[in-house]
Amino acid sequence: MVSTFYFALAAILIIVPDASGFDLKSKSLEKSFIQAEGDTVIVGSEGANLSFDVTEIRAEAGSTLTIQYVNRGDLPHNVVIVKQRSDINPVGIAALQASQTGYIPQDDANQQRIIAHTELTKPGETVFLTFTVPPPGTYPYICTYAGHFTMMQGDLISE
Hints:
With 159 residues, this protein is mainly beta. The chain is 8% helix and 35% strand. The longest helix has 8 residues, at 88-95. The protein is globular and about 35 Å long.
């Protein structure tokens, strides 16, 4: 199994049907932008919209960040953080052939492009992805389910 942990990432994935029983700290400034301070940020999608409700997350390099993804949509989705913008298309296209692995490409070339990812999340589910924020830079995040990568995009900005 090829590891998706880069930059000393420690990813923890937990799938829960309903996150209402969790006591989580979150920092939310506005719907499309979140300034993270080593806490949990909540990202979601709704209905048939092929978009994340938060398209920019700012976090301190080296801090521990948890992305709580809440799927309020009608389709499965995931959150896949890639190293650079030029990685979006190769990972997204390879994911079309990766239905057996939750739309996460398993080949070495694409694994090298992925920093971290959630599991595929069904409508109504919530997943958590905890990792160490990589060095300063902009790291796109996308949904790789069935071609969604062309529209479901955001940026993790490490400062």
